[in-house]
Design a protein that fits this description.
heterodimer; A: 114 residues; mainly beta; seven-stranded mixed beta sheet; 0% helix; B: 111 residues; six-stranded mixed beta sheet; five-stranded antiparallel beta sheet
Chain lengths: 114, 111
């Protein structure tokens, strides 16, 4: 059973469109994250939710809106997609309370904006 | 510049040799972690070393941490072709509730 899953794995879309990426974790963790990995493999945190509450928002454009309906899910909606949004987006989870923040990553969603 | 900077950016060695990667950081940490990323995959946690620890082992992995120099190293002994991947250090910053990742070292093991 996959611990952290994301859908879709690949997403190809036109500039200006709106798209969503979904993430689910079955590890019982209290915290979930979205990361963006650019073409140079640099991994940067975008958002973090702890028990459905937003705790980190790293100056991401407000075209990006995360939503956490429950502790096991964290979705990412992107409005008005731009060429620079092309990247691989990773979801991750960890147990912050009583843990060491070891993070478990999903397989990634490769977004290509044309 | 980045919180975590890794050195070298790329490393190519023969199978059976040891591989050493280094990571430097700037601010106080709770712990430092190493992750592996195979091509086209997500990151996988390898090992964690806490700020009050100096060395840790896990199988063929050995991690050291020098908080006075704000640096860490990852040693992979007796490398195998399957070790070919990118390796990232990540610092768990005090009071920040997040990990900050380095740029990664691309390791290639030649058969």
């Amino acid at each position: 059973d996959t611990a952290v899953s994301q859908t879709p794995k690949y997403l190809v879309t036109q500039m200006g469109n709106d798209k969503s990426i979904k993430c689910e974790q079955n590890l019982g963790h209290d915290t979930m994250y979205w990361y963006k990995q650019d073409s140079k493999k640099f991994l940067k945190i975008m958002f973090s939710y702890n028990n459905k509450e937003l705790i980190i928002n790293e100056t991401v454009p407000n075209r990006f809106s995360p939503k956490s309906p429950d502790k096991a899910h964290l979705n990412l909606h992107i409005n008005s997609l731009e060429l620079g949004d092309s990247a691989v987006y990773f979801c991750a989870s960890s147990q912050l309370a009583g843990g060491y923040n070891e993070q478990f990553f999903g397989p990634g969603t490769r977004l290509t904006v044309l | 510049s980045q919180q975590g900077e890794e050195d070298p950016q790329a490393l190519s060695i023969q199978e059976g040799e040891n591989a050493t990667m280094n990571c430097s950081y700037k601010t106080s940490i709770n712990n430092l972690q190493w992750y592996r990323q195979n091509s086209g995959r997500g990151l996988v946690h390898l090992i964690l070393i806490r700020s009050n620890e100096r060395e840790k082992h896990s199988g063929r992995l050995r991690v050291t941490l020098d908080t006075s120099k704000k640096s860490s190293s990852l040693l992979i002994t007796a490398s195998r072709a399957a070790d070919t991947a990118s390796y990232f250090c990540a610092t768990d910053l005090q009071g920040a509730q997040k990990l900050v990742f380095g740029q990664g070292t691309r390791l290639t093991i030649n058969p």
